Amino acid sequence: MRNIFAGMVLMSSLAVAGMAPACDVVGKNKHIGNLVSVDEDAMTFTIVDSETKEKISFRASRQLLSMLSTDRFVKVQYRQADDGQLETVALQFI
């Protein structure tokens, strides 16, 4: 019984240690990553996605852009616009 408990504790700690925010984990039309730039002229911000390590840009309102600063970890919910750009639906600091 003691060995089973020790095994369960080990498996739980490995599972928690291995959990990193990733797009697959947060769901469809959502990305998690580090905010690396804000371009108020283009009305976009860019993150480095935690899962793919790729830069992804999102269109956002001037009001939202004015509240953003780089080096913050964010979760972005988006929709794809008719022109193909990703439009921010919701943003959460984590």
Q: Can you offer a commentary on this structure?
A:
- The protein is α+β, with helices and mostly antiparallel strands and 94 residues long.
- It has one domain (21-93): OB fold (Dihydrolipoamide Acetyltransferase, E2P) (Beta Barrel).
- The protein is 28% helix and 39% strand.
- It is built from three helices and five strands.
- It has helices at residues 2-18, 23-26, 62-66; strands spanning 30-39, 44-49, 55-59, 73-80, 86-93.
- Strands 3-2-1-4-5 form a five-stranded antiparallel beta sheet, with no helix packed on it.
- Strand 1 and strand 2 (44-49) form a beta hairpin.
- The longest helix has 17 residues, at 2-18.
- The radius of gyration is 17 Å and the shape is globular.
- The termini are far apart.
- The model is unreliable at 1-22 (pLDDT under 50).
Give the overall shape, derived from the CA principal axes: globular
The CATH topology: OB fold (Dihydrolipoamide Acetyltransferase, E2P)
Radius of gyration: 17 Å
Distance between the termini: 39 Å
What are the low-pLDDT stretches, counting only 5+ consecutive residues below 50? 1-22
CATH architecture call = Beta Barrel
Domain unit count = 1
Q: Name the quaternary structure.
A: single chain
The main pleated sheet reads as: 5 strands, antiparallel
Order of helices and strands: HHEEEHEE
